[in-house]
Amino acid sequence: MDYKVADLGLADFGRTEIELAEHEMPGLMAMRERYGAAQPLKGARIAGSLHMTIQTAVLIETLVDLGADVRWATCNIFSTQDHAAAAVVVGRNGGTVENPSGVPVFAWKGETLAEYWDEAEKVFDFTDESGNSVGPNVLLDDGGDITMLVHLGVEFEKAGAVPAQDSTDNEEFKEVLRVLERSLANNPGRWTSIAAEIKGVTEETTTGVHRLYERFKEGSLLFPAINVNDSVTKSKFDNKYGCRHSLVDGINRATDVMIGGKVAVVCGYGDVGKGSAESLRGQGARVIVTEIDPICALQAAMDGYEVKRLESVVDKADIFVTTTGNFNIIRAEHFAQMKNQAIVGNIGHFDNEIDMAGLAKIPGIVKSEIKPQVHQWIFPDGKKIIVLSEGRLLNLGNATGHPSFVMSNSFTNQVLAQIEVFTKTEQYPVGVYVLPKHLDEEVARLHLDALGVELTELTQEQADYIGVEVSGPYKPEHYRY
Amino acid sequence: MDYKVADLGLADFGRTEIELAEHEMPGLMAMRERYGAAQPLKGARIAGSLHMTIQTAVLIETLVDLGADVRWATCNIFSTQDHAAAAVVVGRNGGTVENPSGVPVFAWKGETLAEYWDEAEKVFDFTDESGNSVGPNVLLDDGGDITMLVHLGVEFEKAGAVPAQDSTDNEEFKEVLRVLERSLANNPGRWTSIAAEIKGVTEETTTGVHRLYERFKEGSLLFPAINVNDSVTKSKFDNKYGCRHSLVDGINRATDVMIGGKVAVVCGYGDVGKGSAESLRGQGARVIVTEIDPICALQAAMDGYEVKRLESVVDKADIFVTTTGNFNIIRAEHFAQMKNQAIVGNIGHFDNEIDMAGLAKIPGIVKSEIKPQVHQWIFPDGKKIIVLSEGRLLNLGNATGHPSFVMSNSFTNQVLAQIEVFTKTEQYPVGVYVLPKHLDEEVARLHLDALGVELTELTQEQADYIGVEVSGPYKPEHYRY
Amino acid sequence: MDYKVADLGLADFGRTEIELAEHEMPGLMAMRERYGAAQPLKGARIAGSLHMTIQTAVLIETLVDLGADVRWATCNIFSTQDHAAAAVVVGRNGGTVENPSGVPVFAWKGETLAEYWDEAEKVFDFTDESGNSVGPNVLLDDGGDITMLVHLGVEFEKAGAVPAQDSTDNEEFKEVLRVLERSLANNPGRWTSIAAEIKGVTEETTTGVHRLYERFKEGSLLFPAINVNDSVTKSKFDNKYGCRHSLVDGINRATDVMIGGKVAVVCGYGDVGKGSAESLRGQGARVIVTEIDPICALQAAMDGYEVKRLESVVDKADIFVTTTGNFNIIRAEHFAQMKNQAIVGNIGHFDNEIDMAGLAKIPGIVKSEIKPQVHQWIFPDGKKIIVLSEGRLLNLGNATGHPSFVMSNSFTNQVLAQIEVFTKTEQYPVGVYVLPKHLDEEVARLHLDALGVELTELTQEQADYIGVEVSGPYKPEHYRY
Amino acid sequence: MDYKVADLGLADFGRTEIELAEHEMPGLMAMRERYGAAQPLKGARIAGSLHMTIQTAVLIETLVDLGADVRWATCNIFSTQDHAAAAVVVGRNGGTVENPSGVPVFAWKGETLAEYWDEAEKVFDFTDESGNSVGPNVLLDDGGDITMLVHLGVEFEKAGAVPAQDSTDNEEFKEVLRVLERSLANNPGRWTSIAAEIKGVTEETTTGVHRLYERFKEGSLLFPAINVNDSVTKSKFDNKYGCRHSLVDGINRATDVMIGGKVAVVCGYGDVGKGSAESLRGQGARVIVTEIDPICALQAAMDGYEVKRLESVVDKADIFVTTTGNFNIIRAEHFAQMKNQAIVGNIGHFDNEIDMAGLAKIPGIVKSEIKPQVHQWIFPDGKKIIVLSEGRLLNLGNATGHPSFVMSNSFTNQVLAQIEVFTKTEQYPVGVYVLPKHLDEEVARLHLDALGVELTELTQEQADYIGVEVSGPYKPEHYRY
């Protein structure tokens, strides 16, 4: 079996943690129970790119249990849990370190950018039952990197050439170009034939979804996409409650600094920002919010937070967290004004929310590692700023990401979305879709028992009165929860 | 001037309160400043049916300042603030009790159902500049009562007859039939000609909106409707933050019972339920939620609330609040199991969330007034249950409703919606619409200064990066806030 | 029967409210049940001076049920609930408006300062069983006014003269001098003989207790005092949870202004300040605390509040609340800098926390009543400041004070303290005492059932392990809760 | 230099962390600045027994900077941070791994009980300037172990014999007896002479303080003790805010289980319980409290928590935390009823809050390590219970203990207490003392700047009005904060 992970010896520990996580992921367990016999993903070749954590391991093995052939890479160079990767590779049912029987994984904690894109490419190398090289027929993406690889591949193949690496300043994009150049050299029609086979992609996160809508708007989208991010049970749970959990967890593990009594700035008050602000307030911090959207700004004010421009408070705060999904939020001029030992981290999707490049260019600044994923940036005058996970996702880099229970919601949506796009292909012409509301409600329903929730049932009269079915869906499409 | 209110002598007090409220309603004040000269509502004859409170007075006078001719009734028999009604009638600019110069209002606190529908009918009696009787050309509705009057009027006129009053058990609907029967007797084409003139209705609340969508679905909607309720700055502010304010205010004024330490059941965890639960928790109550929708139930659990069926907790709780928009939520069998001196109230739209009729039919039960809008229902065994506002909206019946600031958001949406539907008639064929997002954001923006909020501005690069204009709108349509 | 109240006709309404309150005052009901037969207060003549509210009515009637003869005045000119006073005077057991049979009360809402002190004096005029004029033998005081009357009376009688009224600038103290001068003229030994009969005083509040410790330190205390305020079940419940309830209640009833999103300054972070800050935060306000004590300031910071000097924030806040027990906290120079329509109120004990006199002296300022207990102070430039209850206790002046349940804790302490000081006189030489901890725990215990609390019982082994009795007390004296 | 730690190679990492912690410990830094020159601890030989963490390293080096000679052991076998121990041994000012120049430390993570007591004994082996063996002249203790060693040593020396190890069932006490038996064999007067030199002990925690009061009551206390635990800036900060921080931190690091939506039982609602409940609620858990003290139970109810007996909820909860300071709180019969994968941990002082011995004796139960300090206990039917840190302090065993800022408060009290007891020996006859309130306030004051707090200053008039000095102390001794 081909794979590339840090150390298969971690598989036993990974397996123990996977078993613990399964208890916390009732939605995925229900998927196995409900669909295990029917094998709805039989024939699916799923190329996945999503943080290779313990929770993702439960997702991967659920996809396998539903019949799929799966290959996996991570979507973030720091977020891989090496024991999770190892356990997935070794597999269940008699797989061993010597003779692994699980799913090919291409991920380890701390990849370089070059390695990241080399490994990403490998999730496209399936072998069919006859032993032929084939591509995937479904993608499962987080942030859109492998979706981009296919789209750029097709675009460059059509153009007959890949732009030169020095056509871009972006270090990461240079690697993308390098990988595609190599690919075109080897096989100038590869991505075009891969794209033709893909029934669709299910995309996990805001940033990736945004890219998909852009492509669809400009007419360049190559296959249908299901926007998992905007299922209520994803966006309102993973983004909000997941970050409530993992933000303070990440800060604590990274710094051990008391959050209570501190002034914390949360940039952005979308779902991630809402969960982040609650997380910090729950620990006794005084939270200040920055926002560009007047509606979210008003929500923050009504929730009791001070709402200011970053410039107005940058010299008074102790902790800074970006949650915007935008870029260049915290810049060199902000770092220059921060207090000594201010802590700066990002829980939005990309590392460019914090201008790390700008920070590195401050004359005389020195970067010093305190421990992995925690660095001091020391100014010439001795002032130190602590930056978490080099500006990448701190909850994944400094802690273990969202907890299993909340990921069970997101990932049950993923499984349902994979089934939709793979089995009902004709219902999904090229476009971007959210899952129908009754599936969204079903995901929620599968997680209630574990919390001891008793759900009230509508009487037929009550259902008629509000014009819904007794079994739902209960709300109009535009309902905001 | 024709009007019917409790006591014009209250006008001075009402005017003082209106002036205080204006300070808290920056959105409406901005409307006056921005549009006062242009008079976009010149020629509009607005028939309004919405709680006749101080805040509504500021709305009415804003509509007048924008050029409209206005007539007003309430949408709830208990919610009128008599001093507000008086002040609106007396008016500004030299109006006096002897010689009122304001807007005709037909509302007083404590109307009977018969009076309510008699007065509702009067908002349709406009006089044009030549002194002719005409109908309104725009409706502004809350709950859909005057919209229903028009629709039923047209329907019965088409049928040539009104059903007999004893065709219904519903006490209130008997009154509707009575009013329409009288109308048809006088003028069998009246509603049909009124309907023909109406450019549209702007509807304030969930329940009314629901009725509009139903009508539109079944093809019976007669004119376009703007769903003000589902503007984010309405549904997420008025419903949630307004109820957070006014729920405990209503309970406190009604009962003076300490909420801290008590067990409170909130039926429903929509926006109203979310605000209600937060209101009670903020006072130290332990809140239990009931829900039918698994998504909202899961939200309640993640927010730390116990989620149970009413039957499981009805004998252990001290306070019960319905917020569902559905009916028959708290029924006679529930009352029978409650603790002595349990407090029961409704903050959803209609009084049938609590089955008051069923309560009254319990053998041997006696109703005793503690003070206006607060009653004890005494069981034969001496057990007493305290019911607020006879099951109608307790925040309006027992307190003063939502506070001005939150209503300024809702009502600024109303003003913008009135302008849309009146001035851009051709853009709104029959259907149900929400306001475009940029207007929603504008409403929010008009309320930030008052709270000392500093809004961050996108750079052009950042706007490009996320694919929006620097000036917004900032979010996709499906965004849930 | 002698009494002086607003209107006995309110007695029926008062009685209904008293019965409702009894349900919320399980501690006092338990006192009646436990001690009703034994009549431990038989022979006690209790002179009381404490806000004449519904809750106090339940206290008074509990004292009567335990055998006491009681006379009552209020301790605050605005706090009397007239229906409560009326009901207490009319009494139970067949008392009527024509022929009242209850307890003599001398209090009505809105007394002048002169009336206040005239009425305060009347609680000393008992008649014994033989019909002779006698004084009280126990005092129950709130703030120390009647205790002061006795002490000053004795002092002036010893001196043979009362200082001239113009020896003081303090308007209120002039009235004290007037009353005592009249008394000395009538009976130059009256207070001396009254004092000789008094077995002790039980004092309700911080301010009164402070005065008692001062007197004791300087050697002038004339009889023993029980400091009820510092029972845990008083100071940590009434002060904190009572104010959490009644602060927002008072602001809401007075102003109807939305608290959510506003900036509120709470001056002082003692128990009253802690409850006040929580009250406002629970409604979504952003709370800023001012403090002089570094320990309380650090607590406020750790609880997530901004801590600033008033001067730094006075021009940015919307709501100001004083809770300090000190004086001259908000002064004319502060008012001058406040925003238009800022709301200012006091929930500490005395009205001098806010310098009302200084406010009134601002050149050109005009005071205008919005409604009773709510005034606008209009500056020459048109700026308006809203002052609640003329700077007196806003929770009593604008709402109904602390709710019954929390007062049941305080007042059960009062009853136990009255029994202690009346029946165990010899155990209390002149001094200031707190109730023994087992009584404090008993008060708490009597309130648990009503909240559905299950108390865990220590095993004998566990009790031995921590060195306490199974039945308590459980904590060392210095424990802070 | 003698020492015994895990690995001196960790010293560099420890030093980096110590420097970060110094920023968060402004109180200790202020001590160094204020007293560094005066050297008030010159001549002090301090034997310390307190968790050997990074924060303790800052304390130790502060004591050294004030002139003391120090030897250190831990007070808990799991709590040592090996890099902290290493850094303290290597020291500053040119110490190296090869040639350490710091303070002798005898502690590593994961000692056996036998090792623990062997190392504890070594803190008594000082060498004076002439090179003679001497004992300490001050103790700094946490939990009272080294204080007990001295007292039992003296007692057994007086008796001339140590009881046989099999006279006790307690595994740990067997080790105490072993160590003392060895000591008496070597030097039968050692402890008696050590005790004679000791000027006093400063004790950190509730449990240790409780033992001291017991000894003082029974007349066996050998030297004065300062109760640091009951300084407000310790008990109300370390216990409450420290646990608010470190409880969720410990649970997160140990289990990665989502706390939001879960049911958590907190046994005990003292300061530790209050902080723990807030910690869990801040993450969205529904918290149920158990209590034996009716006052604390009532506080919990008023704070909105359900209060139940453990038996009533043990089968419904997901997380259990003991905070009582008592023993046998969670017993075998409770474990038997818990849900699968319930999480059980202790944040009180001793590991006997959870009956680990009873758990181990359940027939057929199997203990399996998930990772260090996290074990599954697998019942014969397959049910698994997760126990953290083997029942010892989970915040130290599973996370890094209280954060620096809160420990700065506690440890600044320790430094002040060491100075008191060492320099003012004559003012402290044998007894148990708390620090005077002005020192408590000073500790708070030293921590305000770091949080941006502006402290208000009393005017002289205001100070006079409430009868305090402008500079404090501000509250009576009995004040509870």
TrEMBL record, chains A, B, C, D:
Metabolic or biological pathway, per its Swiss-Prot or TrEMBL entry: Amino-acid biosynthesis; L-homocysteine biosynthesis; L-homocysteine from S-adenosyl-L-homocysteine: step 1/1
HAMAP family registered for this protein in UniProt: AdoHcyase
UniProt xrefs under SMART domains: AdoHcyase, AdoHcyase_NAD
Main location, first listed in the record: cytoplasm
Function: May play a key role in the regulation of the intracellular concentration of adenosylhomocysteine.
Top-level taxon of the source organism: Bacteria
Pfam families named in the record: AdoHcyase, AdoHcyase_NAD
Listed cofactors: NAD(+)
Organism: Nocardioides yefusunii
SUPFAM superfamilies found in the cross-reference section: Formate/glycerate dehydrogenase catalytic domain-like, NAD(P)-binding Rossmann-fold domains
EC number: 3.13.2.1
PANTHER family tied to this protein: ADENOSYLHOMOCYSTEINASE (PTHR23420)
Protein name in UniProt: Adenosylhomocysteinase
S-adenosyl-L-homocysteine hydrolase NAD binding domain: residues covered: 239-401
InterPro entries: Adenosylhomocyst_ase-like_sf (IPR042172), Adenosylhomocysteinase-like (IPR000043), Ado_hCys_hydrolase_NAD-bd (IPR015878), NAD(P)-bd_dom_sf (IPR036291), S-Ado-L-homoCys_hydrolase_CS (IPR020082)
Family under the similarity heading: Belongs to the adenosylhomocysteinase family.
Subcellular localization: Cytoplasm
Residues holding substrate: 53, 142, 204, 234, 238
Top-level EC class as recorded in UniProt: hydrolase
Keywords, comma-separated and alphabetical: Cytoplasm, Hydrolase, NAD, One-carbon metabolism
Manner of cofactor binding, per the entry note: Binds 1 NAD(+) per subunit.
